[in-house]
Specification:
By secondary structure, the protein is an alpha+beta fold. It has 2 domains: 278 residues, Butyryl-CoA Dehydrogenase, subunit A, domain 2 (Beta Barrel); 167 residues, Butyryl-CoA Dehydrogenase, subunit A, domain 3 (Up-down Bundle). It has 16 helices and 14 strands. Helix 5 runs antiparallel to helix 7 and helix 9 packs antiparallel against helix 13. The N and C termini lie far apart (70 Å).
Length: 485
């Protein structure tokens, strides 16, 4: 199959998957009110591949797989390929203001990273390496949309998985067969699971200890696999028109718990099996971080730029954009956008070839800076939206249609801005509320704070692995030695 259209993606979701919302099984995720807008947002990204204005960036026509594939699937071996991947990531993010964190390109590039490091998986057996590469080729050639599930149930964090009062709740192998394995248990926070084609499962964080072998598995299955159940959180999507709910009516990504009820997984879809040393090294040694952070930092760049522009327009709407204290705040916002933007360009300029596989990897320390600062920067900008919106955020009309009602002239008079109509100012305020005051906005702030992991662990890892640490220490030591010479 060639690169898919949005309609082909939607058609592929009509597959009898088991999705539950508010205690009811969903018959068709493509038309279900709480999912259909999110499905459409993903379909729009697929359609970019067929837009003449974007195809050259979004699609690799002469790929190493012998057929056209999405740009995110490409394993980069040149600076130009890295640049084109960045442009594709930014194009995807601009289709949704950076508000779709689980866009297809995220898991696509993760799979490319795993396949590029087949020799790492071969340490656990040649069958596992073949499975990884075979699955990557299957997903790339069929242009599938994946989600992933990493986290176990939140139980007693002071105990290992097999020591819990209910050790069966964490996903584990319960049977090994000649043709595969059977798994049982659950994983949580599988974003986009209701409308993904398949799910990649790997346990995180990589801190497994002896005795947890049954839980140390990485695999992938289609979302309509028998025994796989998806249980959704409440929707934050508003059914109203985009004029009233500019973001939440279109881009609410559903988060879900996935339950594996005696799910069979064939060996060709098992990538790590009961191998604690490999699993604990996978996040680092597969080098997925370099390639996935390249994508996530591009998305964050777009998202921060969008919110920065919103703060700017809110200031203009009130005639405050030239006040020194407001200009200072806007400058702070602009700097945050530019810092994240710089991480990807710096990482590309400092990219190095891995001699083991010939892949050109963007610089990890530069990208890690973006991963560390993003959870701080996005809430900063959201707070700027709150500051500039102020009390006006809670006095907008229920619907933009009210401007066309008999009371419309009074609303226009009450809500007009500095050199801006009441209609235009209200549209800004409705967008601002979606960013900073709605359930949708709260979920995004929580997401950006936490998706990279617990902050202390993230920063400790950066310090532990900082590639230029020794250079800094050597320079300091030479300086100190010079003082006593």
């Amino acid at each position: 199959m060639a690169v898919r259209t949005g309609q082909q993606f939607i058609a592929g979701l009509k597959d009898e998957r088991e999705v539950w919302y508010h205690g009811q099984r969903v018959d068709d995720v493509t038309t279900f009110p709480e999912f259909r807008a999110a499905v459409r947002a993903i379909a729009d990204i697929y359609d970019l591949q067929h837009d003449p204005a974007h195809r050259a960036v979004m699609v690799v026509e002469d790929s190493a797989l012998g057929e056209p594939i999405g740009r995110a699937f490409e394993i980069p071996r040149s600076a130009e390929q890295l640049r084109l991947k960045r442009e594709a990531y930014i194009t995807c993010a601009r289709a949704n203001c950076g508000m779709v964190g689980r866009s297809p390109d995220f898991l696509n590039v993760m799979l490319a990273a795993l396949a590029a490091k087949r020799d790492f998986f071969a340490e656990s057996g040649e069958d596992r390496a073949r499975a990884v590469v075979g699955y990557y080729e299957h997903v790339a050639k069929n242009d599938l949309f994946l989600t992933h599930a990493l986290l176990d149930a939140q139980l007693d964090k002071g105990k290992l998985r097999h020591q819990q009062s209910d050790p069966g709740i964490c996903l584990r192998v319960i049977e090994e067969r000649d043709d595969g394995v059977v798994l049982h248990g659950l994983k949580r926070i599988a974003t986009a699971a209701p409308y993904a084609d398949e799910i990649l499962v790997w346990p995180f964080p990589p801190t497994f200890q002896a005795g947890e072998e049954d839980y140390a598995n990485v695999f992938a299955v289609p979302m309509n696999t028998p025994g796989l159940k998806t249980i959704c959180r409440p929707s934050y999507a508003h059914a109203g028109p985009p004029r009233d709910y500019p973001l939440s009516s279109r881009y609410d990504e559903m988060d879900a718990t996935v339950v594996f009820d005696h799910v069979f997984v064939p060996w060709e879809r098992v990538f790590v099996y009961r191998d604690i040393p490999i699993l604990n090294r996978m996040y680092r040694d597969s080098r997925m971080r370099e390639l996935t952070a390249h994508q996530t930092n591009c998305r964050l760049e777009v998202k921060l730029g969008f919110v920065y522009a919103l703060v700017q327009r809110l200031a203009e709407a009130q005639g405050l954009d030239t006040r020194p204290e407001i200009m200072e705040m806007l400058g702070e916002a602009a700097v945050r956008v530019e810092v994240i933007r710089s991480t990807t360009r710096s990482a590309e300029l400092q990219a190095t070839v891995d001699p083991a596989n010939g892949v050109l990897y963007p610089d990890l320390p530069a990208l890690q800076a973006g991963r560390a600062l993003g959870p701080l920067y996005y809430p900063d900008l959201v707070n700027m939206v709150r500051r500039m919106g102020g009390g006006a955020l809670v006095q907008v009309p229920v619907s933009m249609d009210e401007f066309d009602s008999p009371i419309g002239p009074a609303i226009e008079q009450a809500l007009r801005g500095a050199n801006m109509s009441g209609v235009d100012k209200t549209q800004l305020l409705k967008l601002a509320w979606d960013v900073c005051g709605s359930e949708f906005g709260a979920r995004h702030e929580l997401y950006e704070k936490n998706y990279a992991g617990e902050r202390s662990a993230l920063m400790a890892g950066i310090q532990r692995e900082y590639a230029r640490k020794q250079d800094c220490l050597d320079y300091l030591d030479r300086f100190l030695e010079g003082l006593s010479a």
